Recover the amino acids of this structure.
């Protein structure tokens, strides 16, 4: 029997970020078009003393989020996996197994599918609670306004529930599943490689991050996702009012942001910093042996906290060597000019 969750996860791994972006944009445009058509038919594009479709800024942010979240999740996943191509890794063997495990995790294979199922169950519970408020409860009391997708407008009600179903049972569970597993495995990969001694801070790497620019790219993608979700929550609260589910989501999102940024990414950046200092110390020792003047220049750069790339470029720049030589030979040069 085909497992829809695993099919979605498999396609996520196989497709490129741009393919996922195009898919997300197309589905979101179709989603909005369908909502607009049924809302216009039932006359709820705007509602006096209420929230019509075009007054629901929280809904617009959700549609926009659905368009880009798969793309951002894939960029985060690819950023983690791009350690394979980094020159900071001297030997890929110690990290190859962990990266293969990450692929299995993301594809929801074996026991790793439980994480994705848990996210889907949580999303389904939120969806059912939302439906119950519309059918059993009083939406006007719950959200503080008349709403365009109440049961008084059946077409809009069901299309809006379909929108929420796609958001809470497909997009958000997959997004959380990918980000959590990718963060854990990136932390494990860096730690394992550092313990195995196969990581090296490449001072002259064109990425200006010693070969670790992939970590920065992954961190940027993650924080964009977090900022986007916070924006969605704030727009929903601004459109309606603060509800328990908003508080729960804010708490969970904050915990995830703190844990990933501080525990996982923070630990990774600490390892990178240690590798950078180790590489700089090696350069310092070589320069000290080769040229005392260049050592003094390097020491000055340390004290002024010049970037690693600037230190090395200045230390090995031919101009620095020429200046050093001129200083050493200046008495001879000056005497020669005076005789002339």
């Amino acid at each position: 029997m085909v497992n829809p969750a695993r099919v979605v996860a498999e396609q996520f791994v196989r497709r490129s970020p741009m393919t996922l972006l195009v898919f997300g944009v197309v589905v979101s445009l179709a989603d909005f078009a369908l909502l607009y058509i049924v809302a216009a038919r039932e006359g709820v594009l705007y509602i006096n003393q209420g929230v019509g479709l075009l007054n629901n800024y929280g809904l617009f942010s959700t549609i926009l989020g659905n368009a880009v979240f798969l793309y951002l999740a894939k960029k985060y996943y690819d950023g983690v996996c791009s350690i394979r191509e980094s020159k900071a890794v001297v030997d890929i063997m110690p990290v190859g197994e962990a990266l293969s495990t990450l692929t299995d995790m993301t594809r929801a294979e074996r026991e790793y599918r439980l994480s994705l199922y848990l996210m889907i169950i949580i999303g389904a519970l939120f969806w059912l609670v939302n439906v119950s408020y519309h059918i059993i409860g009083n939406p006007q009391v719950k959200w503080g306004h008349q709403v365009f997708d109440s049961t008084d407008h059946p077409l809009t009600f069901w299309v809006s529930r379909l929108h929420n179903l796609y958001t809470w049972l497909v997009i958000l569970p997959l997004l959380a599943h990918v980000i959590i597993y990718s963060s854990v495995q990136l932390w494990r990969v860096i730690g394992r490689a550092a313990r195995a001694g196969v990581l090296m801070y490449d001072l002259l790497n064109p990425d200006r991050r010693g070969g670790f620019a992939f970590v920065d790219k992954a961190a940027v993608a993650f924080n964009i996702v977090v900022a986007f979700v916070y924006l969605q929550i704030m727009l929903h609260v601004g459109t309606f009012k603060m509800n328990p589910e908003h508080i729960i989501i804010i708490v969970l999102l904050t915990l995830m942001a703190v844990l990933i940024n501080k525990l996982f990414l923070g630990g990774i950046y600490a390892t990178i910093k240690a590798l950078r200092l180790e590489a700089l110390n090696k350069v310092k020792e070589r320069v000290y042996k080769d040229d005392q003047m260049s050592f003094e220049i390097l020491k000055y750069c340390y004290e002024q906290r010049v970037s690693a790339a600037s230190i090395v470029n200045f230390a090995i720049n031919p101009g620095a060597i020429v200046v050093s030589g001129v200083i050493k030979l200046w008495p001879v040069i000056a005497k020669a000019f005076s005789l002339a």
